[in-house]
Design goal:
This protein is mostly helical and 50 residues long. The chain is 84% helix and 0% strand. The chain contains 1 helix and no strands. The longest helix is centred in the middle third of the chain and has 42 residues. It is rod-shaped, with a radius of gyration of 22 Å. The N and C termini lie far apart (70 Å).
Length: 50
């Protein structure tokens, strides 16, 4: 039984590390995309007419 617990802990630990790396990558990509879109909006704000 002890060996089974260690296997489950190993699997869960590995999956948490993979999930963390994926979240960091997607977070950085989303942040860069937001910065680009924000810069584009600020650059083109003169063209907006109300």
């Amino acid at each position: 039984m002890g060996e089974q617990v260690y296997k489950v802990m190993k699997r869960n630990g590995a999956s948490c590390i993979v999930l963390g790396v994926l979240l960091i990558v997607f977070g950085i990509a989303f942040g860069v995309l937001n910065i680009c879109v924000g810069g584009s909006l600020l650059r083109n704000k003169r063209n907006i007419m109300f």
